[in-house]
């Protein structure tokens, strides 16, 4: 059984009571997650987050709605170390600027929501987990499915220290194509650098240490 000290402490903020209770029930059923409370947006949400200091705050909002960005700032001011995961109807590039560490689409299912919460908790620094619902679904089926076959091949070679020119020569593709695959991989992994992408790929099981050994002898 998971020790309480190892569990991810999560607060759920949503204006629709039934949806909020549903998310709380879903999260509370996971052995590695502890729900510290739920609230509608507003002063009560700030008070809850400030009092409980959760590691992850799951917030339903739309950036275009009145006060949404301000509401996000209030939550992060109340608990600066909390990772904010936004539940929204569509991806918005302003999410990261507003303080989000991750997002999940409102239409997502159980697996997608849990992936978003756990990914935000694992992440260091401010990283936007900009992954589509379809990609999250693939990730739930198999560790390597988050990246395409070629993106995964490129990530393996990055992990063993190859430069873009070396990767291009190994895979018989152009450096421009290597850069395109890296850009896609960074986006899917929620990473901003080669090192961060490698760490995320290893932690998710997309790239294994066996892959690294094989690539060096290949």
UniProtKB/TrEMBL annotation:
<dbReference type="InterPro" id="IPR000792">
    <property type="entry name" value="Tscrpt_reg_LuxR_C"/>
</dbReference>
<dbReference type="Pfam" id="PF00196">
    <property type="entry name" value="GerE"/>
</dbReference>
<keyword id="KW-0238">DNA-binding</keyword>
<dbReference type="InterPro" id="IPR011006">
    <property type="entry name" value="CheY-like_superfamily"/>
</dbReference>
<keyword id="KW-0597">Phosphoprotein</keyword>
<dbReference type="InterPro" id="IPR016032">
    <property type="entry name" value="Sig_transdc_resp-reg_C-effctor"/>
</dbReference>
<dbReference type="GO" id="GO:0000160">
    <property type="term" value="P:phosphorelay signal transduction system"/>
</dbReference>
<dbReference type="GO" id="GO:0006355">
    <property type="term" value="P:regulation of DNA-templated transcription"/>
</dbReference>
<dbReference type="GO" id="GO:0003677">
    <property type="term" value="F:DNA binding"/>
</dbReference>
<protein>
    <submittedName>
        <fullName>DNA-binding response regulator</fullName>
    </submittedName>
</protein>
<dbReference type="InterPro" id="IPR001789">
    <property type="entry name" value="Sig_transdc_resp-reg_receiver"/>
</dbReference>
<dbReference type="InterPro" id="IPR039420">
    <property type="entry name" value="WalR-like"/>
</dbReference>
<feature type="domain" description="HTH luxR-type">
    <location>
        <begin position="140"/>
        <end position="205"/>
    </location>
</feature>
<feature type="domain" description="Response regulatory">
    <location>
        <begin position="9"/>
        <end position="121"/>
    </location>
</feature>
<dbReference type="InterPro" id="IPR058245">
    <property type="entry name" value="NreC/VraR/RcsB-like_REC"/>
</dbReference>
